[in-house]
Please model this.
Amino acid sequence: MKRIISRLDIKGPNLVKGINLEGLRVLGDPDYFAQKYYENLSDEIIYQDCVASLYERKYLLDIIQKTSSHVYIPISVGGGIKSIKDIEKVLSAGADKVFINSAAIKKPRFLQEASKEFGSANICLSIETAKNEDGQFYCLSNYGRETNNKKLINWIYEAQQLGVGEIILTSISHEGMGKGFDKEALDIIYDKISVPFIMHGGAGDEMDILDILKFKKVSGVALSSLLHYSLITEKNFKFSYKKEGNTQFLESIRDQNNFKKTNILKIKKFLKKKGIEVRL
Amino acid sequence: MKYISIIDMEINNLKSIVGAINHFGFKTIITNNQKTILNGSAIILPGVGSFPAGMKKLKKKKLDFVIKKFYKAKKPILAICLGFQLLFTSSTEFKNTKGLNILKGKVQSLKNLKTDQIIPNVGWNELNYKKNKKNILFKNFKTRPAVYFVHSFFVNPESKQIETSTINFGKKKLVSSIQFQNLFGVQFHPEKSGKNGLNIIKNFLEQI
Model:
């Protein structure tokens, strides 16, 4: 069955969302969104810490702890995971899997060490990719803030050799745009994929999701803007957030033209009608 | 005071299983203390990681004997994922390792099946479950439930009769749960399987 995953980007105590991983705007209490998506048949929750600074780390652990005690689906966590100890902390707080990006780019063997310690199914790779001037896809680290000379195709191959259990690919140029997933990036690596593979960045409506899930090796999609913007425009949406960061957006939010108003259940029913196997 | 012992396998994440059991009004204790386990109303045997590491952890505190004793006392046991595999004779993960051997059967790599499926099997699968009232974990299901799996190994029980559900894996079928007397085992994670999973846990708890 194909997975529909809710991805929640976290900054401090709040759920945030940007465009191209920039301009983060506060949307509310992450645990509230996670619960709503769980009830709406989300197959998994991803918490992505987008700042991952040391002093704000305790917020993330609190959020994981809270959500995992009442949301009975897998919870994956990414952002700022640099050591075996970091993984242990996140798993102990209630996460099932971790996504590693920057630390693995810096030291690929970290993936191997982590897989050995926690089992490869629980150690996943997160890739943030963008096209360079030379027309090739490269991998970025630190939530798209730092460039590297790691080519996407080489990194996919290498990471799978090191024993990652799953890969999530975020196309930075497509992220937050709502104009469809990055098929060009997928096309380049498709033949190399040999583990469960999740696409993230660009879903604007159900058709975009159908289009990408038609690829056999795409095991699922991670959705953020599409779900969040739909939820916050619902009549009974509960505004609650800790005063921090850019909150003006919440008070004047009706400008999201590229995103259809929908929800996970609607998306899944649509996919099923089109012959994609999903959990209903 | 009634409680359910969750065997302490030094697993990091037990939040969801504890949350699910508490949700139904039962107290839980995460423990590797022999007396505490034997005095409890039921056992949950969880597990992630490799088969040899799991057996080693049980043996270190002589919990293999404790679990067998508990089983003979006819009190309910629910074994999950690696815990489920540990109930059987042996596994070939890394090296041939003996299991608890309460049930006869071998644990093998999904790779041996030579299907076109991606391994590990991560995600949701629909169960083909046996429809009868004696199939305790699934007694009130009307349609095939989808549940969450994360595994690279599978169990091949000698007795077909203990099987209570299977999943389709490529063109093959895998055993996804068993029931034998007071012993229940599931390859999937009921605590991560949404409402269907909670229902399965509730059905187990009703055995107490």
In short: The longest strand of chain A covers residues 3-11. Chain A has a mean pLDDT of 90. Chain A has one domain: 3-273. The two ends of chain A are 10 Å apart (CA to CA).
